[in-house]
Amino acid sequence: MPFVSTGRGPAPDDESGAGPRSSQPNISVAATDLAKTRRQLTDAGGANRLDAAGLRQVLVDLHEFWLTSKGAELGIKPGSGMAIVAVGGLGRGELLPHSDLDLILLHEDLSPERVSEVADGLWYPLWDANIPLDHSVRTVPQALQVAGDDITAALGLLEARHIAGDEDLSSLLIGGVRQQWRTDIRNRFPAVVDHARDRWRRSGDIAHRAEPDLKNGRGGLRDVQLLGALAIAQLTDGMANLRPDSPNAGPQVAYQRLLDIRTELHRIAGRAREQVRAQDADEIGAALGIGDRFDLARVISDAARTIGYSTDVGLRTAGNALPRRGLAKLRRSPIRRPLDEGVVEHNGEIVLARNAIPSKDPGLILRVASSSARTGLPISASTLSRLADYAPELREPWPSEALSDLLVLLGSGPHMVAPIEALDRTGLWGRLLPEWGAVRDLPPRDAIHTWTVDRHLVETAVYAGSMTTRVSRPDLLLLGALIHDLGKGRGADHSMVGAELAVQVGNRIGLWPEDVAILSEMVRHHLLLPTIATRRDLDDPATAEEVVETLRHKRVLLELLAALAEADSRATGPGVWGDWKASLISDLVRRATRLLDGDELVAPEPLTEEMIEVAESGDFGVRLSPADGVHTYSVIMVAPDRPGLLSKMAGVLALNGLRSHSANVAHHRGRAVNRFIVVPAFGEPPEAGLLRQQLIAAVEGKVKVLDRLDKREKDSPVPTIGTVTSSPGASTSGKPPDDPEAVAANAVPALFAVAPPRVLWAEAPAAGEVLMELRTDDRLGLLSRVSDVMEQAGARVRWAKVATLGSTVVDTFCLVLAEDTPAARESLAEKIVAVCPVPRPRTDDEDDGTGPASFGGTGRSGVPIS
Fold first, then answer.
1. What is the tens place of the pLDDT at every residue in 308-340?
2. Per residue in 441-463, pLDDT tens?
3. Which CATH number is associated with domain 6-186?
4. 1.20.58, 1.10.3210, 1.20.1070, 1.10.10: CATH of 439-599
5. CB-side exposure of 719: number of CA atoms within 13 Å?
6. What are the domain boundaries of the chain?
7. Which of 217, 376, 386, 797 sits CB 3.0–4.6 Å from 213 for a disulfide?
8. 717 exposed, middle or buried (CB, 10 Å; 0-12, 13-18, 19+)?
């Protein structure tokens, strides 16, 4: 039997079979009383005013009482073969002042005449009283068919609740819908994800909208209901994704806050409204005791980001938990692939290794986050929970390993956003940076800013990650980008307050005192260049002189501020950075650079007594010893000097999973003496004797180091940050819909470039020698590949200083070129760039920057190759 009526408003007379409305005057009066009481409850003020939660509960009780009484009057009683079932707000027990009544009149295949009589007796009084109504009349099979065909209807029916009449009939529907949902979820899951993504595209992200849609936006009430649906399908644990002590105390509290705000929005607007408008925000904030509109915006952003993170985790968990069918059941369990010490990849997520002990490893949090950023893989929710429960605080100052992991995280571009958000939502980011709490979800005070202050800082670091090769200190650029606005929200000049906080942060994370001073000055003067360039006469010599005096003649600080100014502007909002502003700042920087004195040239480090001792012990020697840090080691390698030796030494280390953080390349009495500071990718380093044997085999040509490095990189099973992965639930080409990679990938697409490689030249003090500096992103065996290119070109390495600052390499080589001409330098630079990581595509044009092209502060122009 087809349904009798469905939709909003009265059904036509020829469909309902009912007489005119005047035939039911007594019923209309009772419904009018219901509407009057609704208005009184909503409009009540002073001592009679109910709080948001109390108002919702009273409205639920009021409408349940009316429906139960009216149903009994119409014969909707136990055993009658009819039942009233509520969905929507009444079904969830959280009816808002101006929410629709979403009702189903369920019947057991009764006669059309009887059903029409009861339906009209139930619907018409509500219509006459102007109570918004969304209604339908169905049998159980009809309702199940609708739920099977329509995702929206299915999600609504999963929240259905019996109100009046035959409870067995209601239970048959509710149980049937849930069973059908669990049975079909494997096939319906892609449609569920697409449904959510379409809603997010239409309504936007609540956390970063000026007038957010609390119901349908990303991070809103619908997302919590989606999590509930996935929990019913037994794919997730619903709302249990965040710890009670995490920011906003978890998704359940976040949901209640948004629900309270939406309740007050209805009450103040006098009608059903989902968008919080600016003109209503102050009144809503005051009614809830939150504060003004800025305080309200902060609460909304915090709640939405908590729910959004929980939704990401829920979708990813659900995708991995989908039941398998057919041959898929025979698929082997995913392999656990090592990524870092105590960190592995499992089933498309970052998890802890089985032997990891978080309570004894304070640096594990940052290794997990940096591994997520390097690979683009999300961090498992259970891993975050375990870290939050057991990981201790990092001692101050941080060990160098922890600082390096932080820099890797910050240098990974857009891939840093997801792990930082995950750490922040679970309370771990605040442990690393306690100062972050003051800017978390802090709304901007002007409309030009797109993001909240904390997200703006992260976005600035994202842009700075594509500029690291413009500066000689990429580590300070990334750190300055992350904390330049950290002084906001404290009631004083944020640049001055931020400079003091920068000292606090720099000392905690283990920077050298001189680097702490530069970091503090970056924050103090981060608005200097944009302000002067756009408001002063650049042709006036006093303008550039003022910049130089303010920065106390520090070339590196000028260089850093130029890059930070662009990153800050780009992260502020559309149109803030443009050709006009870029040209003004570039002109100012060039004028200021001419006034700067030259800094000291880079010089070789002297040999240590240990290096001399190993060099004099024999032709081939390897000494491995612990260095600063639990997982950091010093490796001294000695061999008779010959062409190609540096490439082979560095290659042997790379093949053994030893990542070079720094190196000192020198000579002693005809032997090459190279000292490397390395960190194993995971586990313990190999024995020194094994490294010595491999070095001898490489020197004798028995081991082709570069060929093995190419094969190792090609066969690497772990994706790199250049891999573009999908958003939650998005399909991956060539993979079945239930494949975890297709439905659970949650990394941010790679929209920005890795900073382009740059080769800079300067003259060395000694005649016949030249200094070459390479700035590029790191890759497996980079030092081995670069030194091989130089040696193949006939260039002899007199000495070298190698430094890996996060994921950016700044290597200085003192070379004797076979032919020192501009053309030879350019040719060598091009060959070196060819073995560096290839920049990823980005949405905006790449720019070589506004800083000086030379390095070392000599005043001699360099030749950037990018």
1. 999 999 999 898 888 766 555 555 566 788 899
2. 999 888 788 899 999 999 999 99
3. 3.30.460.10
4. 1.10.3210
5. 24
6. 6-186, 210-216+239-321, 439-599, 625-699+753-866
7. 217
8. exposed
